[in-house]
Specification:
By secondary structure, this protein is an alpha+beta fold. The protein has 14 helices and 25 strands. Strand 21 and strand 22 form a beta hairpin.
């Protein structure tokens, strides 16, 4: 039987929001694999490196040029029979590197039931029938808009950003304030349902406005941001200062002048992640990534429902009806990674503070381990798991071994490791960093990494 270690050739997407030329980590990683027939164009934006079996950009075996999908369908043991059966002989996750120069669309991803309906009705805009919960890990400093803010913050901005209040209308603003006042953090089920309906009404009142009204209001908003500085938006809310929000409005207006997203940001948490920090987004969670390089792992889907910061197809009726309208501080979405227990570090790795950290979201399709090996000869031996793994090296160099097979590993190299295989990573440089996405349906991967 074939040794279940396969070096992958992975494709990179060119979207307008991607970093340009060699500034893009996605492009540099794609170009690292010699057989990729890919060279970086200096003026072209490169947004996403895809690692997986999704038909839009499937990965291939470097040596044979067969698709990873073909290989795992031919040999069900590579995935494990249980996972092959459950996920239709496809990798359950899609692993990505994103290099973000400017804002992605304000978006959410449908749950499984809605995805099936949207795909059946409109396969051009919704290319598959799967849900898309996703996890983001910062490789460089990252910022984004993620989930609805606490209601008290939204009420604060409705009261202190005149152009926002005028745009959604006095009646809509007043109705929201009256409904949530005194109940913003109530745990009572009826209060929570009322609050969510009020938030849906106030958000829908904004995103359904016609473009000319939004453009006019945006000019007023940007002028206030440029003039007021730290006093903008009543000095900001508890989570963000006035100057921070003013700078954000000006920056985003430079990318998408007069866009509704300039106002949506007052409804959503503005989050910054430092290197190694992570957050998890459930299906139906609204978000917009703004800048940075990230590792992203998700259920294997490419469904996106958009409503701003994009020239692409926008489906505002679907977006406003599908969102859960859960509201919470960003701390509720940030993850708490834990030490990965099923790896053995050798003495060199242990004495140099090498680490293997588990990011484990509350779903079964995927988890991710970040491994940092410090010093030449530092080694990590991963116990076999009953499921597939995809590993990307993001910095440094070394080797990866499965059974008798050893391959060179350097930044940008991607490998598939089959089920039930022990995997050994070793550094031959001062430090090497890898990320491993994997799926195992039972047993070991039960440590909770979501706060």
């Amino acid at each position: 039987m074939q040794v279940p270690l396969i070096q992958l050739q992975c494709g990179v997407n060119s979207y307008d929001w991607g970093k340009v030329g060699k500034e893009s980590a996605a492009a540099k990683y794609a170009a690292a694999t010699e057989s990729n027939q890919f060279s970086i164009e200096n003026e072209k934006p490169y947004a996403e490196l895809w690692m997986g079996t999704h038909p839009s950009l499937p990965s291939k075996d470097v040596e044979t040029q067969r698709s990873l999908l073909d290989l795992i369908q031919d040999n069900k043991a590579l995935m494990s029979p249980k996972i092959s059966e459950k996920y239709g002989e496809k990798l359950p996750f899609l692993f990505k590197i994103l290099s973000i120069r400017k804002a992605l669309s304000i978006q959410a991803h449908p749950n499984k039931k809605l995805a099936e309906q949207l795909h059946a009705k409109d396969p051009k805009n919704y290319p598959d029938d799967n849900h898309k919960p996703e996890m983001t890990i910062a490789v460089t400093p990252f910022d984004g808009l993620c989930g609805f803010r606490p209601l008290k913050e939204i009420a604060h901005f409705l009261a202190t950003v005149p152009s926002l209040r005028k745009l959604i209308g006095e009646d809509a603003a007043k109705e929201f304030e009256d409904t949530v006042s005194g109940r913003e953090t109530s745990a009572n089920v009826e209060d929570t349902q009322r609050n969510k309906k009020a938030l849906q009404a106030a958000f829908s009142a904004l995103v359904t406005k016609d473009k000319s009204a939004i453009a006019t209001a945006a000019k007023e908003l940007v002028a206030s941001a440029e003039k007021e500085g730290e006093n903008f938006a009543g000095g900001g809310g508890p989570s963000n200062g006035g100057k921070e929000l003013a700078d954000l409005v000006v920056r985003l207006n430079g990318q998408f002048e007069g866009d509704v997203g300039l106002f949506v940001l007052f409804y959503l948490n503005y989050v910054k992640l430092e290197v190694g920090e992570a957050m998890f987004l459930k299906a139906d969670d609204i978000h917009a990534y703004l800048s940075g390089d990230i590792v992203e792992c998700m259920a294997s889907s490419d469904n996106v429902v958009r409503a701003g910061f994009t020239p692409k197809f926008q489906d505002i009726p679907t977006l406003t009806s599908m969102l859960t309208y859960s509201y919470a501080p960003i701390s509720d979405q940030k993850m708490n990674p834990v030490d990965y227990p099923y790896v053995t570090l050798n003495r060199t790795a242990y004495s140099s503070s090498s680490s293997a950290i588990l990011y484990d979201p509350p779903i079964e399709e995927f988890s991710v381990v970040k491994t940092e090996l410090n010093g030449k000869g530092a080694k990590a031996t991963f116990e076999p798991i009953d499921g597939p793994s995809v590993i990307i090296c993001t910095a440094g160099s070394g080797s990866i071994s499965v059974g008798p097979k050893t391959k060179q590993m350097k930044a940008g190299y991607v490998f598939f490791v089959g089920a039930t295989a022990e995997c050994i990573l070793e550094s031959d440089s001062e430090s090497v960093t890898t990320f491993k996405a994997f799926c195992e349906l039972s047993g070991k991967e039960s440590a909770s990494g979501a706060s």
